Amino acid sequence: MTVIVPGAADPWAEPAVAGCHRLNGNGELTGLEWIREAGLLTTVIGLTNTHSVGVVRDALIAAAAATVSPEEQRWYLPVVGETYDGDLNDINGMHVRPEHVHAALDSASGGPVAEGGVGSGTGMQCHGFKGGIGTASRVVAGSTVGVLVQANHGRRDRLRVNGVQVGPLPGEEPANGTNSGPEGSIIVIVATDAPLLPGQCDRLAQRAALGIGRVGGAGEHASGDIILAFATGNRGLRPLVDHTIEGAPPVQMTALPADRMDGLFYAVIEATEEAIVNALVAGQTMTGGDGYTVQGIGGARLADCLRDAAGT
User: Fold this and answer.
1) Using CA atoms, how far apart are residues 102 and 12, in angstroms rounded to an integer?
2) How confident is the model over 36-70, as pLDDT tens digits?
3) What is the C-alpha separation between 308 and 63, in angstroms, rounded?
4) 261-282 helix and 299-310 helix, angle to the nearest 10 degrees
5) Distance CA 122, CA 84 (A)
6) Domain extent listing, the chain
7) Cα 40 versus chain centre, distance
8) What single-letter DSSP state applies at residue 34?
9) Residue 169 confidence (pLDDT)
10) For residue 198, which of 35, 47, 74 has the smallest C-alpha distance?
11) Which strand (E) or helix (H) includes residue 135?
12) Catalytic positions, please?
């Protein structure tokens, strides 16, 4: 599993403005009803496989509750997303346990993010190849837009990189992990330090779907494509969600003007596209316990394929 700490070690005390979008709903990202209602993210984010959402959610609550005194009344609606890894993983074995969640929380840090078949991306496949975790970012008008995907979606015959359809890889042989059918789902987490309102986060989340489409994803019927966007440009928002704070003055918030949103839109589209490609490039060939194999595409083979497709 993987955790994302959204700009503050204690998101309950320092919520982030948030919004979301559903491209196709055959998936789960818990806690979205509260985000839609309040427009705020008040917990860390967990990612895992489909059958481990419950244990990750419970462990996140236990970890958060352990940091405050029993006298302080808090309630938690953790945000936990999933994609299905049952082809490579014994998903019904329930191998994700609370100690894995606590270890992920303890090791969470800034800096470069491991990609490919790591954390919650371990058993994921994307467009018929090994997928998993991918990240990318853009800087626009002084604001950073970062994207993390858990890529486990897409048809093999629809894969496109830089607008070029990826055909058979050089020397590729049919493998039991390569097929043209829809695969699983994708979770996209968008983070920015821009000052945004909840509705603007919704709009930002919507544009990530265009990045999915640029690589060939289409929100197929069997896919769960869910996007969460949060913004840390406004701070001191706890009175908006904590009814125990009495007599607080009105909370001040700032927001980008409408004509500056386009730059963020372009940034999230490009970063989502790149994050998916990075997940593919970082994915390494993996064989599950029952012999099911998913091929990794690799950067060199992908580059050869694109050159062949371009006729150069």
Assistant:
1) 18
2) 999 999 999 999 999 999 999 999 999 999 999 98
3) 51
4) 110
5) 11
6) 2-245+253-310
7) 17
8) H
9) 66
10) 35
11) strand 132-140
12) 185, 223, 225
Helix (H) or strand (E) holding 152, with range, is strand 143-152
User: SS3 breakdown of the chain: % helix, strand, coil, rounded to 5?
Assistant: 30, 25, 45
Contact (Cβ atoms closer than 8 angstroms) between residue 227 and residue 167: no
Structure tokens at 77: 């609606």
Measured CA to CA, the distance from residue 128 to residue 216 in angstroms comes to 12
Residue 278 has pLDDT above 90, yes or no: yes
> Residue 114 corresponds to which tokens in the numbers above?
């491991």
pLDDT above 90 coverage of the chain, percent: 85
Number of other CB atoms surrounding residue 289 within 10 Å: 9
| The residue to which tokens 């078949």 are assigned | 117
Residue 308 C-beta-side C-alpha neighbours within 13 Å? 13
- In contact, 34 and 240? CB cutoff 8 Å: no
User: Is the domain covering 2-245+253-310 a CATH 3.40.50.2300 domain?
Assistant: no
| Type of residue at 284 | Q
